[in-house]
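ugh ok fine here u go
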Amino acid sequence: MIVVNRPAQFFPTFVASDFEAGQPDQRIIIAAPPRCGTTLLASVLSNLGVRFGLEDRSWNIDSGYYEHPSLLKVYETMRKWHKLRAISDNASDYFFRQAVNRLRRLLVHVQAIKYPPLSSELPQLVDLAGYRPLVVIVARRFQSYALSRMKKESVDWEACRRDYINIYNSSLVSLRNHGGVVVCYEDLFDDERNRWMHGLSGIVDYEHSRIEAVLDRLVSTSRNQPFPELADAECDLVYGRLRECRAG
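structure:
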């Protein structure tokens, strides 16, 4: 994991008293396609005390969580915006403003959000809602991501490939524009590759040892499963760029 283009003092200290007083104005966005480990990272942050506006629960490798219900409404509103963009500027602008307003009401109460299908749009929406986005990208190898997603969801290989390229490329742009970190999914399951915890501790102001203890508890009975190697040159290039942005 590597911190991009921000001095150390940029990273917020999420203390309850500061948050209740309306500070700081940064909001963490966990960005990645579906089935890339956003739920695990959200579970780690939530168990450390970062607020997602949801109840904590034990992490399950087969399920997703930490998508706030309000973000589903934002997603549905943004889908309407996408459909109307080519038809009517006034109508599409209405739905875009509505999405920003819905998100603004949520951001008053939470410190971090994730909604994988909205990963490309959330940094801009958070910015327009009056908060400073901090992007945390979870990078997973295309092969294991695609097989995991096709097993879990009714999507084909091409849809997986398209989402992988589009979401990660746009997230890299957001990382460059707003700052943040990249965590490799595979490193979350590797006891020898724990340098990413130092970068994460700089964001949430929790000691490395506390992050490690939470992660060990969440994944004590699950480890990354092996997948057959199914190469895709363009996706492998994207993953290579993501790995260049992480330490270790």
